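User: Show me sequence and structure for the first protein, then do the same for the second.

Assistant: Starting with the first protein.
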Amino acid sequence: MKNKKSKLFIVLLLLIVITLSSCISTTTIEIDSTPQGADIYLDGEKVGKTPLIMEMSNAIGKNNPKVILKKKGYNNLEGRLEHELQKSNLIYGIFWWSSLFYTSAPISYQNFKLKKEE
């Protein structure tokens, strides 16, 4: 009887750990530029200057904002953040479906190269 309770406790503990780890829904990223000091706009909202360290959501639909970098004397640069697959969340999805909404995350360091105006 005691052995069954121990096994049940271990199974429940593993399920809790898997569930909680799938709730990690942000990634710390650094947005940088060459040269540095460019204004950063995410989906039209100014969020700071390069280099900038910030938290980004990993949720599908919220982690791929339009990025615009502006610096005097340089052409504006428009693009999107690069992403990588979060393999662990695919595995957690077997046990906890909500982790499937967090299968992609921005790469932690992103550097954009600005071109001088001609």
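Switching to the second protein now.
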Amino acid sequence: MYSYISDTVYNALGQIDQLTFYTGSGNRVYQAFNRELETGRLTGVHTVRDGFAPFTLADVRYTFDDAGNITKITDVAPSPVDDTMLQLRLFAPAH
């Protein structure tokens, strides 16, 4: 029997810095947690996989107000599909 989380890395404050997901076969997925140095507040979660592109699955960023409330959540990961070539094929003149 395998666990989905195969490794956990903690920082000096005991907070999770990175999780590694692996079932014993296939590729691994890594999830890193970014924090504000002064407060330890979570500012982002970056999720990547090894093995094949796109490697970045999610790159979520959190924005806070002065009271510490989340005001915005944004996933800045690149789009997994580059449809530029598809658009060129669809709109290119026939030969």
